[in-house]
Design a protein that fits this description.
Layout: E1 10-19, E2 29-38, H1 52-56, E3 63-64, E4 67-68, E5 70-85, E6 105-113
Antiparallel strand pairs: 1-2, 1-5, 3-4, 5-6
Length: about 120
């Protein structure tokens, strides 16, 4: 089954989107971001990445002939989340007055980069 066919998938990623200046690489325009992509939200981007008039200007160096070069680097992040409750704040089973449950403990969010795909047996 294709996990992307479901509306329940999500993927946390760090990425860079660049418009390459073909005359002078130091004038290339890049934006970095993190985002949780999912089947529920279909779009993500910048409304102010760069003016199209700048990119399409023949003197700017972004368009060479009829070619505009756009690149992306995507790093999919593998994350785990855990919550370990402190024993001292665990609800008691005594016959005293009812006290709302207090969540106290350690929340741990680990983010690791996923390496190249490998056959894992």
């Amino acid at each position: 089954t294709d996990p992307c066919a479901s509306a329940k998938w999500d993927c946390f990623a760090s990425y860079r989107l660049s418009v390459v200046n073909q005359r002078d690489d130091s004038k290339s325009i890049a934006r970095d971001s993190w985002h949780r992509f999912s089947g529920k939200k279909k779009s993500h981007g910048w409304c102010d990445f760069t003016p199209s008039t700048t990119v399409m200007d023949p003197k700017s160096g972004f368009v060479a002939g009829d070619t505009l070069v756009v690149t992306t680097e995507i790093l999919v992040l593998d994350e785990t989340v855990s919550f370990i409750r402190d024993e001292a704040t665990a609800p008691s089973s005594g016959s005293g007055p009812s006290i709302p449950e207090v969540h106290s403990g350690r929340f741990l969010w680990k983010v690791r980069t996923r390496g190249p795909s490998r056959d894992r047996r």
